[in-house]
Design goal:
homodimer; Molybdenum Cofactor Biosythetic Enzyme, Chain A; six-stranded mixed β-sheet
Chain lengths: ~425, ~425
């Protein structure tokens, strides 16, 4: 049953403990949308432009090509000179010069003459057609034309590819490899693009050792920091972390005031005594959303601290991943000028077993793919990150649904559709 | 009509000029498949591992967590002590200690006692259940238990997430963000991954100015170099180019002998006098494939020079893109340990206009998407790179097809499914 009210009363569901109200996912998205504007422009060199988002539309300053060029290897001719030529009635033309790519002929062409020309070479003045090499017999200083050629034939006109003054690519375009090629051919050494968001990762938890350490005693090793860094990179942000932050209000507040566009706080996001970040955000900035009707990730929040957007992500790693994907990733993409939609490939599949949810919350259910079917993973807690490495993707069960029976058709987001790429080297 | 013969006689199609035989695309793929082995392993730091391909399977050296932990905030108890407790018959337990994440209790628990515990904290010795805080009344030094709790309840056992000695991730896995998290939590500071292929881009053509220049006179600016660099990065290679290579056999041979796993030569790939690269490859190495039954890109080739795989890509930029995507990109992905399939999102769409091809060649047709329909772009030559920026994707028309009528259902590869990402920063 749909819930018209944007919040849902807290239930005895222990995961929801402590939150008087839980905001609907859609309401959190609405607040977020009101906060998201692309960052200002910056200039990047052409060789760094791939994948960046144009902040302005690009108009070509030049014609490409800047001159008429041959589309075939052959002979530049005056088309009228070839009228009536056949294999039985070959017509002679005197070869007076050659035009190569980058090395045009030294002279113009007049009636009765031909200039040898290669594909891509400038068509000499006076010529109005290119006769393919297959249609002539080559003699020492002349050719015998065996076929008539029409005016303009096998000539690529000036501006055939790109016309000066025409719009090449619109603002908001995420540049593809071929876009970079076109921008290079039109003489762009630098490009105006949306600045990439700087994202500070604040990992808290006195039980945590930094990534790279071995777990020891009652200390566990930070999984969220490295995972978030990879997610941020995927979404076009510049992530940085500064070790594990001490679990004190002072240390967390200082970290949340770092030089960044977006702050991600991992851990201490709920309403317990030791959950400092929500309190700090309420006191020093704005805690706009806290407690969301979803599973996992219900103890997530978001707000602002000065110019920074702040996301409070639960410390449990599955919750952290889920809250990142629902909210923080979307913000990083939007600030960088990208689309906010899910960065996963979506497929339609059939459920092999039923998938249970509860009305009143959105569920993020990990599934495994086998052919056209997907199987829900055995229910595992938000603390079991390895459930997301065994899964091939996830199904989102909307708030007004109790889940789906076996055999139902569902939309699945696949985790694996994120090719890894790096800035091209020059 | 299918062609049983792997080669097709040259036709009068002028694009095929000069090639005595054209190899079928599938035959070129077969040769290529015989040459592709993942590169040797190298070690990378955890924070550089995202998107890399594991060269060995990873077994966990530890249990995660390494101890039983509380899944709720509450009290660690002996379950038997709570038997019979109700709101009307609360049972008292003495609170003797506290267990926090990373800060375990100092003492073991005995009958009649409770230890305050937070989610994620180690369960003290002697305790066999966690009683949620909602089910007790808290007094000064004791709690009143209002509900019985079963043995093992709200305790996450040691190894709940990951069991020591179990396989975490298989060889060949391209690491996802959550994989990096799991590898961090199991204490992996470094990982064995497939080395990324080094790819030298050799751009030839006396008419070319380097990327970043303005076109001038009869000089045009290199589009293929920057485009190839972006494609290589997308496919996980390390691309590098050293300016424009002089169009002489000496210069091209030297460039083809650069320190790289793969050489991409752009330009001079056909059979003309000025096409040096195929001749050089035949003389100094192996020219395995030259001339392919496809459009564009028929004057493409591939072979080996020493340990290097060499791809001869036509200079026309659309042909260059097409030959890269059909052959070179696939090789780069395979050497880096990735899947060789197309790196594009594939959709099913309806043709709004007919799409004409010819039996005997594979066609790479650029299309524009509008809703569920795709429209073939007006036919434009292989020299018009902007056709690939106006297109949303492409349709591959198989060799045995004459094309498709309007209204036909076709598979479309979308150009835009290549999120840009960069190596995460630490």
């Amino acid at each position: 049953m749909p819930q018209p009210d944007p919040t849902v009363p807290a239930t005895s569901d222990v995961r929801m403990k402590g939150f008087a109200r839980r905001v609907r996912v859609e309401q959190a998205w609405d607040w977020l949308a009101s906060q998201l504007r692309p960052l200002p422009t910056e200039t990047v060199a052409l060789h760094e432009a791939w994948g960046r988002v144009l902040s302005e539309s690009i108009v070509s300053a030049v014609d490409v090509p800047g001159f008429p060029r041959a589309m075939m290897d052959g002979y530049a001719v005056v088309a009228a000179d070839t009228e009536g030529a056949t294999a039985y009635n070959p017509l002679p033309l005197q070869v007076v010069d050659v035009s190569l790519p980058g090395a045009p002929a030294h002279q113009a062409l007049t009636a009765g003459q031909a200039i040898r020309i290669m594909t891509g070479a400038p068509v000499p003045q006076g010529a109005d057609a290119v006769l393919p090499v297959e249609r002539v017999t080559v003699e020492t200083e002349q050719i015998l034309v065996q076929d008539a050629v029409a005016r303009g034939k096998h000539i690529g006109p000036q501006g055939e590819d790109i016309v000066q003054g025409h719009a090449l690519l619109p603002a908001g375009r995420q540049l593809r490899p071929q876009d970079v090629g076109v921008l290079s051919s039109t003489g762009n050494a630098e490009l105006p693009v949306v600045r990439r968001p700087r994202v500070r990762v604040v990992v808290t938890g006195n039980e945590l050792l930094p990534a790279g350490a071995m777990p020891a005693g009652y200390q566990i090793v930070d999984a969220n920091g490295p995972m978030l860094q990879a997610l941020i990179a995927r979404d076009g942000g510049i992530g940085f972390q500064r070790g594990i932050v001490e679990d004190t209000p002072q240390a967390i507040l200082a970290a949340m005031q770092d030089d960044a566009d977006i702050i991600l706080v991992s851990g201490g996001s709920s309403v317990g005594e030791e959950d400092h970040a929500p309190t700090l955000l309420r006191e020093h900035g704005e805690l706009a959303i806290h407690g969301i009707a979803m599973r996992p990730s219900s103890p997530a929040g978001m707000g602002r601290l000065g110019d920074r957007l702040v996301f409070l992500l639960p410390g449990n790693p599955v919750s952290c991943l889920c809250a990142y994907d629902f909210f923080a990733g979307r913000a990083i993409r939007a600030l960088g000028g990208r689309a906010t939609n899910w960065p996963y490939r979506e497929i339609t599949a059939t459920l092999s077993r039923k998938l249970v949810s509860a009305v009143g919350r959105v569920d993020y259910a990990r599934v495994r793919q086998t052919g056209d079917q997907v199987e829900p993973l055995a229910i595992s807690g938000a603390s079991v990150l390895s459930s997301t490495t065994r899964a091939d993707g996830f199904v989102i069960i909307p708030q007004d649904s109790e889940g789906y029976p076996a055999g139902a058709t569902v939309q699945v987001m696949l985790y694996d559709e994120t090719p890894h790429t790096t800035t091209p080297t020059a």
